[in-house]
Amino acid sequence: MKRQNLRTVSLILCIFSYLLVGAAVFDALESEAESGRRRLLEQKRGELRRKYRFSADDYRELERLVLQAEPHRAGGQWKFAGSFYFAITVITTIGYGHAAPGTDAGKIFCMFYAVLGIPLTLVMFQSLGERMNTVVRLLLKKIKKCLGMKKTNVSMENMVLVGFLSCMGTLCVGAAAFSYFEGWTFFHAYYYCFITLTTIGFGDFVALQKNEALQKKPPYVAFSFMYILVGLTVIGAFLNLVVLRFLTMNSEDERRDAEERASLKRNRDAIFLPIEDRTSQMNLIPLIVPSLCTCLCYRPRLCGSPVPSHPETLSCHTNPVYYNSISYKIDEVSLSTRDPTGVSSPGSTLSSNSPRCREHHRLRRKSI
Amino acid sequence: MKRQNLRTVSLILCIFSYLLVGAAVFDALESEAESGRRRLLEQKRGELRRKYRFSADDYRELERLVLQAEPHRAGGQWKFAGSFYFAITVITTIGYGHAAPGTDAGKIFCMFYAVLGIPLTLVMFQSLGERMNTVVRLLLKKIKKCLGMKKTNVSMENMVLVGFLSCMGTLCVGAAAFSYFEGWTFFHAYYYCFITLTTIGFGDFVALQKNEALQKKPPYVAFSFMYILVGLTVIGAFLNLVVLRFLTMNSEDERRDAEERASLKRNRDAIFLPIEDRTSQMNLIPLIVPSLCTCLCYRPRLCGSPVPSHPETLSCHTNPVYYNSISYKIDEVSLSTRDPTGVSSPGSTLSSNSPRCREHHRLRRKSI
């Protein structure tokens, strides 16, 4: 079975099992508590009904009234500040639902707004996240230099650790701030920040919904908006570092397979060609040339070692996120190109006794 | 200013302006209707208060009661089917909020569940989306062949059009189904499907919340779950086609810049090197070799034309999503590698009069 299909099928099975496990655990954790709450609520409703003797219609009317009035508790949800808050929850796909367009015109605009806004936001956060990672990488390198460490390379592990700590830090800062402003417990505020920054946005906890905060507390409103946007950037940076490469895996394999098919085809053709044409072709089998240039451009440290031929080795270079994570190494290594031993010099990796055709010979040897 | 920084700054400005415009429009569309609804609700509340003479405390109690009872209207939200529904809304980040964990244990598990589940789901939908695109591409190619069209290549425009139509189709099918099952208008059902499949999930319209559907209508429950998962795959396929490449732009540029810095450094070094070493280095300038192998492997159609040297030309090949969109072309072109003119043959593009060192000379000529 093709690697890409196998991976996709395993992922689907994985997700379904994950959903089944999740459903079982949520059932076990919540189901009983829910029945308890339900009984309590029915009992209270019974008491109030007996006390005031509602008609069934009046009670239904009262329910509708309370539910519709709920969004208005925060004051005007659709004045400019509220609308800005709503717009953020749309393009980031948080979608608390604390306010939802009530008019059909609002619903239509919301859909058009999301169609352009969501991809734009996605690209913006990934772009900003990547910039953040680049800055962090440079800072870490400088810190390592200042500390006089021998190895100043910033490894992927370093970056992932910093990313993880930044995410935790962002959540904790938010939890502290919102527990102070909203009067929630630290745990509930942390849960709110987590559910917001993962863009799940249940809406069971929503900031700026008390005491007409949207109108009366502009600094807190500004802080909340900035927190959401900065928080999403930090999460975006972490995703850019850890998850983004996995999103392009299948495309990667597709490209590699097509490349291999093409080169095999070329090999087959070469067998039926006259010797002169054959040499010209065999020197240029794409399986070799990319490995050569990959070695030269993206893995200077490996240039002393034989050119990798395993597809995995090729694939990892063609992932831009991988490039990003190693690009900073190239500067250092380029300094060593004058190295007379030629161990770390792309130039001298292909050196032979004769200066002319040295690379030609090397390629021939590999291509056979 | 560095291209990546410029792009990121423009994206940030773009998003902020987009938010401002959105806020202004939502304010204009919703603000007045909101005030109207508010007045009406206060009037109704006044009538009921006068009729039943609630004490202020009792009314607050009644409000709390109705709000807390609302999730229970759908029957048990946390039995297995409901928990499965909730688990889907967590890992897909839809997060309607029709049900949210009430216990602290549930909240904690929900957070851990999302941390692993969201990236896994993201990767699964992208992987599945890419597979869908590959199948669609092959189908389109076969259809074009069956129709006896001269050009059987499936262009990016073809794919985007098919992707767009699939998304619209999915939304319309969902709108028809949910308007039938939930008794919503087609427009409201379409709005529900859109808000669900974009993972915004306000929760103002939520399927399976009437007449204890979760317990009493298993086929409808299964349909709803499958609709959400299949719908998200279709959207994922479209994003894989259109948006994914933009997520890796900065990483791309970073890689290219590092590559150029390294090659320039190598050039500089070469000037101070003895002539023999210099030739060995100049043959191997990464700006040339990758363009050469890129040309050979990924742009066979261009092999007759001069090797591209503009960074943009390099960059477009190093984007895996780009590979994916062109990989299928390689099979066709590899058939033409025997072409004696060598115009479309990667092998013969570099042929010269002398069979030995022909590619060495070619590289030399390009590198100077």
Percent of residues in beta strands of chain A: under 5%
Principal-axis shape of chain A equals extended
Number of strands of chain A: 0
N/C terminus separation of chain A: 29 Å
Q: Which spans of chain A of ≥5 residues are poorly predicted at pLDDT below 50?
A: 278-368
Most extensive interface: A-B, 173 and 170 residues
What is the share of helical residues of chain A?
over 70%
Structural class of chain A: mainly alpha
Radius of gyration of chain A (CA) equals: 30 Å
Count of discrete alpha- or pi-helical segments spanning 4 or more residues of chain A:
16
Calculate the mean pLDDT score of chain A and round it.
Answer: 78
List the helices and strands of chain A in order.
HHHHHHHHHHHHHHHH
Largest sheet of chain A: none
Based on the structure, what is the oligomeric state of the protein chains?
Answer: homodimer
